[in-house]
Sequence to fold (367 residues):
Amino acid sequence: MSNSPKPRLVSLSHRRLPLIPFACLWIPCSNRFVCLGTGTGTGTGTGSGAPGNGLIGVYGTASGEIRDVHTIEKPRAFRCGTFGASSLQQRYLATGDFDGNLHIWNLEAPAIPFYATKAHQEIINCIDGVGGLGVGEGAPEIVTGSRDGTVKVWDSRQKDLPVANMEPAQGGLRRDCWAVAFGHACNRWDRCVCAGYDNGDIKLFDLRNMEVRWETNVKSGVCCVEFDGKERSLHKLVATTLEGRIHVFNLQAFNANSDLVCQSEKPYKFTAWTVRHLPQNRTIFVTSGGAGSLHLWKHGDCSALLERTDHEREGKDCAGPTLLNSISLSSQPIGSLDWNADKQGLCISASFDHKVHIVFVADQHAF
Fold:
């Protein structure tokens, strides 16, 4: 029996933020990160902002400490952001706000957005980017999902009009879209978007053919969806839900009826908020929970089931994800997290007690 240690999640540092954080993101090719959200209005610290105003806090790491760099304040609260459609040279940040506006910001000159459009009629809940940062083939694009029930794809080279608009048929029921993710950007022609909704619907949109390639319902609101790699052919998809479950779909296992192998785990008593795959090793992913904890997972192998046609099996026929370790960071939900693309195993997370944590995965050789 091997005595090798398990991978461990280790908290390196943390600090309290002068904002309510809805998203945290590493700035590519740097030791800096941003936290997006809204002002607390407490007036007790630099950049606390007026309630309802949007704040982008830029922070740096040095000697194990988190330090302020600068704070950008705007009139509307920010809900989500991504660097995914920007080049490594520009590192422009795309944001969605509570009024349905999509902006792209140059953090070095943030007075006026590089790009601005009224993307949705209601709050933009979620955003993702592809084609930037050297990840994914094809044009740099941004996808947004909104409470208005629509999912839209944007190209910053095209003003005001989306390049794709996925919405219910006229008169159809509009569900609140909580999660979006790009995938299958493995060549210049193909690209998919996955969207998750408040009623448990998950839809996979094929952007090349402009059709719904697959859909299912997981019976609980979908808080986050992510492929195990935007730039690779469809392989694994992870969805997190309100009831504390994570669902892992094997996308290689499409059969004639478009059924998928699905593995479900329930690591959280409360909401499973988000999921992020390790950029340097796509078999590893981390999820966050409503009780302030992170769980580190490794994907199981379902390759032996590719020829089967059973309907979305839950469990015993396929190796599900393996829980490697966990850590408790807060008494409040961790609503956002992000891996560092340059330093393997380095992660940031932001929780609703106004705190940001820097976490590192130790003993990675045990993966």
In short: The first strand starts at residue 8 and ends at 16. The CA atoms of residues 263 and 314 lie 5 Å apart. Confidence is low (pLDDT under 50) at residues 309-316. DSSP finds no helices and 28 strands in the chain.
